[in-house]
Design a protein that fits this description.
This protein starts with a helix and ends with a helix. It contains 14 helices and five strands. The protein has a five-stranded antiparallel beta sheet with strand order 2-1-5-4-3. Helices cover 52% and strands 12% of the residues. The chain folds into two domains: 92 residues, 434 Repressor (Amino-terminal Domain); 181 residues, 2-Layer Sandwich (Beta-Lactamase), CATH 3.30.450. α6 runs parallel beside α11. It is of the alpha+beta class. This is Transcriptional regulator with XRE-family HTH domain. It holds the Pfam family MLTR_LBD. One of its GO terms (molecular function) is DNA binding.
């Protein structure tokens, strides 16, 4: 990935979203061509010269101090994820050039697998950084049936999101969830722009999905470790579930996705129905395996 180009587009997008009024500046100079901040206004807010900021926005971050970066964070009113992304891009742009590399697929340890199975009442799925399910309990597979087709390999969640029309029915808030997926991948790209698997996935999705290509070009970054999803499940109907993405510290690159419904709600009733359906399916499968 072209880190200097990413820096340029990221900073351009950030200053375009802030008006002088929001930044606390008095707007002068007549009609503005764009609603966002001009380069000289960002420079003023960050306490650097316009020429210096312009060099930074063009992707040349060599020699830029941490204090200047934090001044830029304040000037552009960056959130935690955007701040981390800016520092990641700076390290990538100023460090030695590294060749693309293949990162090993994280493996689920027997203890983590046992933990996931023990969470019988909670849908649980262990995902790689790129959205590949590598372990799950029965309720997790039942909650996301399209990701776990019977007798076939599991589906990558990003490919399912953008390349499988079923996802637009399953996710009632598809646009929100899809944009979150793109912004999460942007964070990964900043953390390691040499990741060959990530580069290949981004290239595939950008080629085959207009929405992905547009949102990827927007350089939005957000972290999504918790939130709410609105699902239309093919068996139990509509569900509103809170989710938590829990990092598995013993296995870097893996997160444990868990899903809960608010007690005493229709979604809780639907989850209970899904638990009963999952248990019934398990009994049917067990009977089929043990029958003579």
């Amino acid at each position: 990935m072209d880190t200097r180009n990413d820096v340029q587009k990221f900073l351009t997008a950030l200053r375009a979203r802030i008006t002088p009024e929001v930044a606390g500046l008095t707007a002068f100079g007549g009609e503005r061509r764009v609603p966002g901040l001009r380069r000289e206004e960002v420079a003023q807010l960050a306490g650097v010269s316009t020429a210096y900021y312009t060099r930074m926005e063009r992707g040349d971050l060599s020699g830029v101090s941490e204090s200047v970066l934090f001044a830029l964070v304040r000037a552009l009113q960056l959130n935690e994820a955007e701040t981390a992304h800016l520092f990641d891009l700076t390290r990538a742009a100023t460090g030695p050039r590294r060749a693309p590399k293949t990162k090993p697929q994280p493996r689920v340890s027997p203890r983590v697998a046992q933990l996931i199975d023990a969470m019988g009442d909670v849908p649980a799925i262990a995902m790689t950084r790129l959205g590949d399910p590598v372990a799950s309990n029965p309720l997790g597979r039942a909650l996301f049936p399209d990701l776990f087709p019977a007798g076939k390999p599991v589906l990558n969640s990003a490919r399912y999101m953008f390349l499988d029309e079923r996802s637009r029915v399953f996710y009632q808030d598809w646009g929100t969830i899809a944009l979150e997926a793109v912004s999460g991948m942007r964070l990964l790209a900043g953390q390691d722009p040499t990741d060959k698997a990530l580069m290949a996935l981004v290239g595939e999705l950008a080629t085959r999905s207009n929405e992905f290509r547009t949102w990827w070009g927007g350089h939005t970054v957000r972290s999504h470790s918790t939130g709410t999803k609105h699902l239309h499940h093919p068996v139990v109907g509509d569900m509103t579930l809170g989710y938590e993405a829990l990092e598995i510290s013993s296995t870097p690159g893996l997160v444990l996705m868990t899903y809960l419904a608010e007690p005493a709600t229709p979604s809780a009733d639907a989850m209970n129905l899904l638990r009963s359906w999952t248990a019934s399916e398990a009994r049917t499968d067990e009977a089929a395996r043990t029958s003579p």
